[in-house]
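Weekend entry, working from home. Most of the wet-lab plans are on hold until the incubator is repaired, so I used the time to fold the two sequences that have been sitting in the queue since the last round of cloning. Logging both here for the record. First:
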Amino acid sequence: MSFEFTKDELERLDDLRNKVDDDRALVLPALWILQRRQGFISSEDILYLEKTLGIRAIFFAEVMGFYSMFNESAKGKYELKFCKTITCKLRGSDEVIKAAEDLLGIKMGETTSDGLFSIGESECLGYCEKAPCMLCNLDQIGDLTKESITELIDRLRRENASR
């Protein structure tokens, strides 16, 4: 079954529509609703958005292409997105990423077999003063080291093992 907005979600989008002059203002909020509920947005979902909101699919696709927080496929419960810009590289992101890959047993762009972790890259997160940095889902984490990424992964594994 593909994604469908709830009645409440549609009402919120309609309320927003009544406040703006251009329906394209609904694109980002609609994508956020979908991303938060489902974890990713497929091409089928984009067609649903076009049909439901009456906004051409290309506008959704363009926004998804611009913002790295939108996923086109299912990811792990915890998605670790490492900033790939020069500031983070110069401050040791490659070593941190290697530590994460070794600890999780996966490479960049992959998801662990238990579905708990995915790792990927992101354009600049605007957190250069805390480089190297990453997003863990939507939480920004800076001053990464091999030790801090190991602690984070171990903590998240423990939290999920106890549930």
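Second, folded right after the first finished:
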Amino acid sequence: MDQKVMIGTTHDPMPLAEIGERLRIAREVARLTQKDVADAMSIARTTLVAIERGQRRVRIAELQQFAKLYGTSVNALLRQEAVHVDLAPRFRKLTDNNQVAAQATAILADLARAEVELENLLGVKRARNYPAERPILPGDVRVQAEHDAAELRQRCGLGQAPVHDIVTFLEMELGVRVYVRRVDGNVSGLFVFDDVLGACILLNANHPRARRNQSGAHELGHFISVRREPEILHLSELGNTREERYATAFGIAFLTPANAIKQKFGEVTAGSSQLTRRHVIVLAHYFGVSREAIVRRLEDLSLTKKGSWDWFVANGGITDTQERQVLGDLQLPDLYKGAADRPTTLRLNLLAAEAYRRELLSEGQLAQLLNLDRVELRGMLQDVEMLEDEPDGAPKLPL
């Protein structure tokens, strides 16, 4: 029979197995072994094993010791709305001996957990408009990727229009959790799917917007094809597996649909006998991808001869200065870079401020949940308050 104990912040008894599982996840997040913890608490390792398996009742004094060792609080361990998901084991094979990837994984996990926990507290249900999964079939993965990308575009009513902001598309159209944060330059993006958190993507704010757009479309390809397998996209990844080749081809086809490229290429190069830097810059800007990506796509579609990008590179490349000369005021500021310098995301800030306003979480609990010190938290809450400080008579929302 399932044993339960009256403990926590509500009157609902929590099963011992649930408490044990939360303690196990908290221990693994703290990167402690069972032996580490047993030694620190002067208990037998078998006792700890029994607690984590829900076979032994945990005493309140022991809970306090666990919380202290794991760098959390008893309240955070037992709060019903708390999210206890450890993403690290899913990335373990991908992050072994790779501290950079492990750090990026931790950032993604912390942000997603905090966001879901705040949503649970506030009763916010995030809409998931996920497309059906399309397993990779035998045959040419590039052909399937082109078809699947066109199918998703049609489903979302995109037609041949460019997708300049992949973050907004993923969040607003599909309900994917997307975070743009500054991580090591070797990591372009991460993708993971979890039943509790949903689909989550982290993109590197240190990369140029066009590169980030491509990384987001690449991760979208993984979401479409093999969403149960976590993935880390490294800069200049070769893509040796069929899954990687599919994701790369999907991203290209999604951002630069063949028919749209052919049509726009004809318009931009009308009357010209050769591909120029200006053509490349205009086309890359229109489709929101890098200059290299657009030339490679033109090569693949036989709109320019193979080796065109290599020719540009060998002859001085296509520089940012040249891009500014061609585009002038058409260049847009990269808002995500500025937002990435803040400790948390704007949506997290708004959720946290609302939870604080309703007195669902204390200042200390919020600071711990968001990995902020209290000074940073107070500054964030004041910023949100200033943004929402509307004069009397502002439109009311339905309750």
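Plan for Monday: verify the second prediction. The mean pLDDT is 87.
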